[in-house]
Amino acid sequence: MTETKFTPRVFSGIQPSGNLHLGNYLGALKRFVDMQGPEKETVYCMVDLHAITVWQEPKELAHSTRELCAGFIAAGIDPEQSILFNQSQVPEHTQLAWIFNCVARMGWMQRMTQWKDKAGKNQQNASLGLLAYPSLMAADILVYHATHVPVGDDQKQHLELTRDIAIKFNNDFGVDFFPITEPVIEGAATRVMSLRDGSKKMSKSDPSDMSRINMTDDADTIAKKIRKAKTDPDALPSEVDGLSERPEARNLVNIYAALSNQTTDEVLAEVGGKQFGEFKPMLADLAVAKLSPISTEMARLMGEEAEIDRILAKGADKARAIAAPILRQTYEIVGMVGAKQG
Ligand code: TYM
Question: Does the CB atom of residue 50 touch ligand 1 within 6 A?
Fold first, then answer.
């Protein structure tokens, strides 16, 4: 890890668009919970402004934002210990994003694989926000001078861009102001794959609901989706090498490892030699045991909408207390008159 003058601070975000799924949980949320502790400040955000880079029905967006907040808390984020809020309540994110829009280059944005995937062949018709998305993401992180960002593997390129923006800003203005953030991409499930196709990432945009486990699925649905997950006819190997050409088998073993807090090697030492007919029920039992309490608690919290809104507003106040002075200093560095006041 690089030494910096910055105090350790964790930041990460999840989009409130559609359902929270097992990939979000194992690749991000569960790890956010693990990073919570007295030695580091942890800041977690529902990035509603990122979500609207593609069309969102207003009512559904509001519902998804509250449901995501319920998911954070049900998974173990303590709003007293972590700062938990939605992005649009902290205007400093978009204010810093504008500065970064003027630091980052068009070419950097156009190179992003997520832009190419999401805009597809119809780039002229994509929103300008979708292109500028990574610049807002850099602002999310850097407006807190965050040093560590836990994410799944698919966000790696965006975090490299965040570092590029910080480096260029520091160079352009001759300062050492923004930290060079460390991506934290760790564990057995940094890339959870579709249950129907081991070469595709588990995602909320997959048209098949059988491809993913949603955090709101009940026990029967979870068990059914695992029972029907695509596999191959062979028994499980005892060593990780034996999974290299078997993407579906590797995915299920990795999910088992992440859910049971073990390494893939440890899991294979236990299940090597078993057929899927035996392994799938083990995985289904484990998944139900770990996920059902979360979905039950999410449903309960969703009955307390006013309480969720209160938590988000309180989190936003705490977030602004950190972000506002950093934005003010940024304005001052850039030469905005009046930046010293307030
Ligand atoms: P989003 O909302 O697509 O996903 C939220 C988090 O879940 C992880 N993830 C996965 N991990 C493992 N396997 C999968 N199949 C899988 N699918 C999703 C993502 O890597 C992510 O960590 N741009 C971000 C949100 C964002 C953000 C930020 C993240 C906005 N600003 C600042 C970190 C810091 C996104 O769209 O994530």
Answer: yes
Largest CA distance in the chain: 69
What Rg do the C-alpha atoms of the chain give, in angstroms? 21
Catalytic site residue from 204, 230, 274, 318: 204
Q: Is 5 known to be catalytic?
A: no
CB within 8 Å of 217: residues ≥ 6 apart: 225, 291, 295
Overall fold of domain 209-300:
Tyrosyl-Transfer RNA Synthetase (1.10.240)
To test the pocket of ligand 1, the residue of 131, 154, 157, 197 to mutate (highest count of ligand atoms within 8 Å of its CB) is 154
Rounded to the nearest whole angstrom, what is the distance from the C-alpha of residue 112 to the centroid of ligand 1?
A: 15
Give the torsion sign (CA, 228, 233, 235, 239): negative
Cβ of 222 closer than 6 Å to ligand 1, yes or no, is no
Q: Compute, in angstroms, the gap from residue 179 CA to the centroid of ligand 1.
A: 21
Q: From CA 43, how far away is CA 142, in angstroms rounded?
A: 12
- Which phi and psi angles does 149 have, rounded to 5°? -130, 100
Q: Where in the chain is the domain with CATH 1.10.240.10?
A: 209-300
| Mean pLDDT for back-to-back runs of 10 residues, the chain (342 residues) | 75 95 98 94 98 97 98 98 98 98 98 95 95 98 98 97 98 98 95 97 95 96 97 96 96 98 96 97 98 96 97 98 98 92 53
Architecture label for domain 9-190+304-334 = 3-Layer(aba) Sandwich (3.40)
Active-site residue flag, 314: no
List every span in the chain annotated with CATH 3.40.50.620.
Answer: 9-190+304-334
pTM to 2 decimals?
A: 0.96
How far is it, in rounded angstroms, from Cα 193 to Cα 321?
38
Residue 60, token pair as written in the block: 């559904």
Q: Is the CB of 290 under 6 A from ligand 1?
A: no
